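Limitations

Structures in this collection are predictions, not experimental determinations, and the ligand pose is part of the prediction. Treat each record accordingly. The example that follows, with magnesium ion as the small molecule, is included so readers can see exactly what is and is not provided: the inputs are given verbatim, and the output is the predicted complex.
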Amino acid sequence: MTENIVEVRNLTKIYEQGNVLAVDNISFDIKKGEIFALLGPNGAGKTTTISILSTLLNPTKGEAMVNLYNVKVSPDQVRKSIGIVFQEPSLDNEMKGRENLELHAILYRMPKGQRKERINEVLKLVDLEDKAETYVKNYSGGMKRRLEIARGLLHRPRMLFLDEPTLGLDPQTRRKIWDKIKELNNDLEVTILITTHYMDEADELADRICIMDHGKIIALDTSENLKKQISGDIIDIQFEKVEDRMKIPRIISLLKEIPSIKNISLEGTTKNQRELLMNLNLPKGMPNISPEMIKTQINQMISDPNRLLIAFKRFPMASQMFLNAPIDMKKRISNLFTDDLLKELPDEIKQEIVKIKSGNYIEEEKDFEPTISISCESGGSCLPEIIQAINNDGLKIKDVNMHAPKLEDVFLHFVGGDIREESSDRVKSIKKRIQMRQLTR
Ligand SMILES: Nc1ncnc2c1ncn2[C@@H]1O[C@H](COP(=O)(O)OP(=O)(O)OP(=O)(O)O)[C@@H](O)[C@H]1O
Ligand SMILES: [Mg+2]
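Predicted complex:
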């Protein structure tokens, strides 16, 4: 039987500040030697889970064992057996690569006699030997990430936590980091828990995928088994330039009537944009307000710059809607703002309006070439019907691509396509650094 290196039972974390239920009664195991990917939208609770497993945070309820040690009872033993690469960068830019590792070795109370050898060993592991004497401020993003991985490996941990290790890196650099992760896992038998927003990364690396949303685990299996759960085919249809945007929601409703079609989503748009495009289909839970009423309200608002100004200042969603609105709508709104009023607008909106007024807006006006993604039982048999419906509606197809469900489709199937209003703010990042110091005390 395979041994577990991590066992989590009914783990719950409530942040008292803000009263946030970040992790909601989750249970899972990680097998020794596996690469386990934790996926989920912003704010799903991934970092919180890692923080508990690495003893940086106390759970509110539940148990977690790492390397046979209970995180609450034996945090020191847990810390000695794990390595961690934080989501937020945590290197000292004013120090050289080697110095960063030395500092960590000292903080970890690594015996002096071992330090040099271990540091050389980990620098070699991540191919940074020749950059050891370079200041970290002169490292590229990929080099910094590799140095952080090296630091996580200094005391030869059996379990490594990587919280978004390739965030913001270019595709080649990401691949290099993947190779390192695989090497660590294969050659050194380090078990790895990785979080990422890149589906290709999780698919390439992970033995098992765990999808979290709103603090709960909503799917956990191999990528292959998860893909089987959404049986059938996915057909992506890209349209040639669409002049009348309202044709898209119309064709989507028409296609939805084809019985073998299970789901259709509009790619490359946020939920807010989709609602705007779908002619204000209201979200669930607002049954008493008629769409007509909302449309009237919005129409009134977009004729009154003072009301708009208040909306832009108070509600991020209003700014979002403006920024994502079709160009004719943007032009109409821009014309309402005199130079005096313009000054009072939030910067982002102001810049957009100035651009529109200057006539410098050709790029965005040029092409609206949306792609819809259709999930159906059998692509081959419903494709002719789809194409017929599209032709009848006068829309032109630029590209059709049929494929088996990808991990991305699985992810969207489980968590939906909306963007979460979460960002890792400075306070969170500073807190993490303080916690990091505590960890390495
Ligand atoms: N120190 C904190 N105090 C209060 N709430 C917090 C704190 N840290 C995180 N949260 C909240 O807990 C929830 C889970 O956050 P967490 O950072 O674990 O998410 P995540 O899945 O790692 O997201 P991301 O993909 O954006 O990194 C969010 O609602 C977040 O705002
Ligand atoms: Mg996170």
